[in-house]
Amino acid sequence: MKISVTVNGTVHESDVEPRTLLVHYVREVLGLTGTNIGCDTSSCGACSLHVNGEAVKSCTMLAVQADGQSITTIEGLAVDGEMHPMQQAFMENHGLQCGYCTPGMVMAATSLLKENPNPTEEEVRIGLEGNLCRCTGYHNIVKSVLAAAAK
Amino acid sequence: MIPAAFDYVRAGSAAEAISLIGQHGDEAKFLAGGHSLLPLMKLRLAAPSVLVDIGRVTDLSYIRDAGDHIAIGALTRHMDVETSAVLKEHAPLLAHAASHVGDPQVRHRGTIGGSIAHADPASDLPATTLALGATYVAQGPNGTREIAATDFYQGFLESALAPDEMLTEIRVPKMGGAGWSFQKFNRRAQDWAIVGVAAWRGSNGSGVALVNMGSTPILATSVSNALAQGASVSDAAQLAAEEAEPQSDLNASPEYRVHLAKVLVRRALEEAGK
Amino acid sequence: MTVTDDRPASVLGTRRLRKEDPALLTGEAKYTNDLDLPGALHLAVLRSPYAHARIISVDTSAAATSPGVVAVYSGADLADTWGAPMPSAWAVTADMKNPAHYPLASGKVCYVGDGVACVLATSDAAARDALDLIDVQYEPLPAVVDLEDALSDRVVIHEDLGTNSSYTWDLKIEGHEGQVDEAFANAAYTVRERFVQQRLIPMAMEPRAVAAVPQPFGGDMVLYSATQVPHILKVMVALTLGIPEHQMRVIAPAVGGGFGSKLDVYAEELLCVALARKHKVPVRWVEERGENTVATIHGRGQIQHVELAADADGKLTAVRIRILADMGGYQQLITAGIPILGAFLYAGVYDLPHAYDFSCTGVYTTLTPTDAYRGAGRPEATYAIERAMDVLADQMGIDPMDLRKRNFIRKEQFPYTAFTGLTYDSGDHLAAAEMAAELADYAGVRARQATQNVPGATKLLGIGQASYFEMCGLAPSRVLASLNYSAGGWEAATVRVLPTNKVQVVTGTAPHGQGHETAWSMIVADRLGISPDDVDVLHSDTAIAPLGLDTYGSRSLPVGGVAIAMACDKVIDKAKKIAAHQLEANEDDLDFVGGSFTVKGSPDRTMPLAAIAFEAFTAHNLPDGLEPNLEAQVTYDPPNFSWPFGTHICTVEIDTETGQVDVLQYVAVDDCGNQVNPLIVEGQVHGGVVQGMAQALYEEAVYDSDGTLKNASLAEYLVPAASDVPNITLGHTVTPSPTNPLGVKGIGEAGTIGSAPAVMNAVIDALSSLGVSDMPMPASPHNVWKAIQSAQQGASK
């Protein structure tokens, strides 16, 4: 099936099998491998990206459902070679270790701040309930998001 | 995890969706937000041969004040239910319960209609709308009909919807300032409830429904009857599981579920009474 | 310490941001499954749905004709491919029984997830579609799920071994054999407890992934793998498949966490290499999470019988330990040795006389093989002694903190030669415990507890402590030899100053989240007086870093980091010769400060390292006999383990109506000696604490009686999220290790070692007023509720 998807500001016309998941589309068809896959059950959030500005789990969406929509992946977050303030905050607060959950975590966090620009620590923790990390114990991830909110 | 192959068609309206489902028969499924169906398809626990995507039927995404009730389009996303000013004023229990569904990413895609039509006893919104005495509107080839929430849930993942019917609207009576509480007991915030309770209590009565206490969402009528007859909250809460048939799973035995239901119903009624 | 008084402020010990981060934060980093490999075939593995069954037949004919399929193989089809069984490198006893284990099973399957056939196809989807078409007939056999059942040999899993017991490994103290019985006979107090270390699933966020790229005519083979151990993997794959080692190159690209689960040689690595060789094209495989839960190793899985004897003051007089350890269906790389790594730590941080008796029996079950998982043997040991100490304190009616203080090895006793003959390098347990008690307001919580935990209260407060020693560095090679471990414990480093004074460091460590690129560049910067930005750290590619023993067991800094410091010192020695030659000075008269050599007393006679590097490169004017270029290599074999330590204190509140445990506060005071980068140290502790807390409160691999894993996904296996865990309060004491020039000890596993017992001691402390004296991990709401119910039923009888 033919689809037209705007990804990181560029329109892509592609022909995909209906069963192609959005995450496989961005990774394998577009070569945007920053979006990771960590589970089969919509649990881990590693594949989070933005559809029309909101975080979604791209393993639980078909590429054909994204037809005509605007997608932002982790590769599209930096502007003019400058990391997004959220990416900077993660770096400054050691909010990542192995980095595998990080793109999804950053995409979820930027979506969270869009909806709630001044969250409490508790709201950040609840707001990231859909993203699992095995390295950081979340302490510095929460700190990073609060720091980004304060910027 | 890759679903088995299927054909995909996109409907522009409810009528078109119903016609497409009619054409493709039993092997076809509606796809709304996809957050109930796609996980099953990825695990190949479901393998429909055709998906009828109703996600673009945008005229079914609305929340309207309809006088004595609030009308919610079936394709309204959880995030929109959660943040709706109309619902926060007239049915705050539902708005609050929606904020507990899945996680933010799930709430950006999942829809209230999809959740109710999936009829999962472990989901938050079937029980919540049941507690609120909601009515669901279904559209089929021969027009629309109303189904009371109390008649809708017929078994595990089974509803009163005919295969060629589509849930189009959820009508929730205004709560009129009644007190309410939503108690979701789980081990991780993103998970389904081990036991959940949606409850309201006002001058004209009460409604209590249980999440994950049987093969369907359970309306705890014994609790409401006892309250109507003047029972104390703690005495009424002892009847919490009268209508339930709780299952055993990794998180709880039936006995523990019954115990939790009593504790959570008591807490819910106490909070609703404040 | 390395810092002298007159040198500029060192970068060591500063909170320097990680150089790894920009690539990881922007999606630029490439994990194995991100590699673009044109023409690669995709491997998918059909896995047994039975825990224990005989394979009657495998019919691959329908799968072979499925669209996109290139080949389908059963275990029997590939039997001739393997030069040797899958490697297991740790025969802990001379008579250890170890069944032959091949990448695909042929005669029978021994756990759910055991591979029985595989498909090669042009896409992952096509390969997985074809799996459904392979018809395998099984004759199901009884599953062996329970360790004590396994020990009984009711069902013998590997018939050729004749028993499910793989080995029994004892540690008795020579010359003191009678002392244990004597101590128990004369003890004022004795404790006898049985603890269960539940099976855990490591759940690194990146599932495993493998790609093998052959060079059909040249003969070389490049194996990309999401592994912690590229060097060990290279040797093992070469041996197992008969590939000349010099033609085998292993690359671990960005690796998304390991926690021990990627410290292994797996079937899929061998399958990809073997099939890439056979088909003469690249072959790749990526693990789905559902496969990861059954086909990647599990951790823990032990039953511990713990006995303590103490005198009237509570001073420990003897410790006796009996362990039953679950190997799973087969041994993986170092399965048998994992419980042995704990054998030296069951007396914890306490001053125990030579009255110690340890024995561990490893048994096979029909479950996923176990192997190293965060802490590997040491968390289990620490849990046992620290829970048992609380039981002893309860028996004596004294505060558990007080009991610990009576038993701590005192600061002035270090270096302390323990009953095992091992020497603990340095420590100050009292200081760490007191700092933790102050941060946790231990006295205040005890006071609140007295008013809060009254009869009828439904919110009970509990506080628990764990003091630990971690045995890390792993280890002097001769010590490993005495444990029959098949490899050494050294690490290699090369420091190369390039002509423009930029530095390449080649390390044998293989980081997967630990920040070695940052930390190693800081060590070099400190030593050579340059900026860490001018240092590039090369690793995880056996062609670039041919020598190394990889990253596990908190070994990287105390062994690999120290090797780098020593290589820097060799570079400086060589540079000094060049400087002395050019400055026409005696080497002894030169100071090296801030990256320059200066003649003592003549500040104008100076030569920066940059100039020396260029001189070394041109070789126009070097001292006679000195080789050109400025490079040094060191292979460092540590003289001892290093011994990080600390005290963790957890405060919980338990809702007795629901069984819910809320962690109100978590304090961790850790001492890892000198810290290279406190930012990284803190991150390691945070993550470790939450992993241990997850064992205490959330995680358990649950099997039914048929040996089927009931929670084989991240939806059901409860890795906690941010919303489920608290902030963590950290404190640090610094007691440098005297055994290495950096004074470092390692920090990778400390958090996990301290946290499970601290949390469980807090849980039991909260419930003690209800008569609960122990309960199994995890302290899930259901388990807590059951423990309360059963204590109350016991009390009413």
Verbal overview:
The complex is a heterotrimer of chains A (151), B (274) and C (797). In chain A, a hairpin with a 2-residue loop joins strand 3 (48-51) and strand 4 (54-57). Chain A is built from five helices and five strands. The longest helix of chain A is centred in the C-terminal third of the chain and has 14 residues, at 102-115. Chain A is globular. Chain A folds into two domains: 2-76, Roll (Ubiquitin-like (UB roll)); 85-150, DNA polymerase, domain 1 (Orthogonal Bundle), CATH 1.10.150.120. With 151 residues, chain A is an alpha+beta fold. In chain B, a hairpin with a 6-residue loop joins strand 13 (205-211) and strand 14 (218-219). In chain B, helix 5 runs antiparallel to helix 8 (124-131). The longest helix of chain C has 28 residues, at 556-583. Chain C has 797 residues and is an alpha+beta fold. A seven-stranded mixed β-sheet of chain C has the order 3-5-1-12-9-10-11, with helices on both faces. A five-stranded mixed β-sheet of chain C has the order 7-15-14-13-8, with helices on both faces.
Uncertain runs of chain A with pLDDT below 50, 5 residues or more?
none
Task: Report the strand count of chain C.
Answer: 28
Helical proportion of chain A, percent range: 25-40%
- The second-level CATH architecture of the largest domain in chain C is 2-Layer Sandwich
Which CATH-level-2 architecture of the largest domain in chain A?
Roll
In spatial order, strands of the major sheet of chain C run 3-5-1-12-9-10-11
Q: What is the tally of helical segments of chain C?
A: 20
Give the class of chain A from helix and strand content and strand pairing: alpha+beta
| pLDDT < 50 stretches of chain C | 1-5
